[in-house]
Design goal:
alpha+beta; f41 fragment of flagellin, N-terminal domain; Alpha-Beta Plaits; 19 strands; rod-shaped
Amino acid sequence: MSMINTNVMSLNSQRNLATNNASLGTTIQRLSSGLRINSAKDDAAGLAISERFTTQIRGLNQASRNANDGISLAQTAEGALAEVGNNLQRIRELAVQSANATNSASDRQALQSEVSQLVAEIDRVATQTEFNGAKLLDGTFSAQQFQVGANAGQTITVSSVANARASALGQFTGATFTNQSIGTASDTPAAQSITIGTTTTSLGTIANDAKAIANALNASGIAGLSASADATSVAAAAQAVTTTTGGTASFSLNGQQISLNATTNASTNRSNALAAINAVSSTTGVVATDTGSGISMVAADGRNVTVSGFALGTAVGTTIADFGMAAGTTGATIDVTYRAPAGASGNVSFTGAFAPAAKALAATGTALSAIDISTVGGANTAITSMDAALERITSSRADLGAIQNRFQSVIANLNTTSENLTASRSRIRDTDFAKETAELTRTQILTQAGTAMLAQANQAPQGVLSLLR
């Protein structure tokens, strides 16, 4: 069939050529951009998925930078706290020096002058240490959240950094028993325990002896609990010489049998007792002193001093009073300090022979700004305050170190996740060059062939002219 007005072959060639040209344009666009999806028409679902991947990838990358900033902040705070700790160590060193008896009042005042400067420097560091305008050590940096994820709520919270102000350091939550009497001293072992809050800890079966109690408390394993026994002091008894015939006698001192020579002379009796007691002081822990009217005794480690079992040998009419001593058990006082963890509440109480009135956990201790080592008492108070301050500083540094390690872990995890999501997005969006170059070759050939066939189809109607000749 020969027609002129409608060249179907030409129309068909044009349609195929347009299709090939469109395919060629898409292939060239993909090869030139490197992306398989350049608009929604290329792959609507793939575009939506890849855009969600992009959101997560960019969020993760920013979260990684956030975590790095968190590390920088923690390093800034930890470095400042390290210097505060160095100054606290120096103050404690000066307090220990001031407590020594070799120092005069002017010496201690000179030591206090250095302490005052160190305290001022600690306060300056606390008030001026900041990161990007945020104060870190003045007690205002608390409950801070670091965004470490691509989505809302994916945060790490730093509850607080230690308040390093001089007015805040040195005090602690806890309870203190100072010069606490042990009650009726006894060498008979009995059950003893301590209760902090709702937790009761057995101290074992021990004598009601300040040294034994202090040792048991220190060995209890309770964090923040420390105890020390004060020296046991036994006053001299009124001396009354009743000896009628001089001779030997004996008594027991802390379980050690001691022989005495009794005379009818008071001074000689005291001298004999003094020599006999001090000869075995390494065993009994007791040192005697002649007061001029009797024998006083001291146990420096706070153990009980028990005088008992007086017996006559060859002496006649002699009693323990002939030597200015009296039978009985004398105990010491004890100092107990408990530094509780943050947020602790309740009471500290004891059950057993040693049972002072319970004390509630509360703010106690002397603030750094109030310490004064110009006296021995002030120096001892400063030592306790410095221990509490150093504990707070080192605890906060440990927390900051831990959070730095956590941020490092977060960064590693974020980078791994971002890498994997980027690979997933690449498989959806990026051009497969091997496939597209093959498609380019195919469409170029089809386009060239289509152009040639269109030319042939356009020439076909001219064959009608032969019919008109």
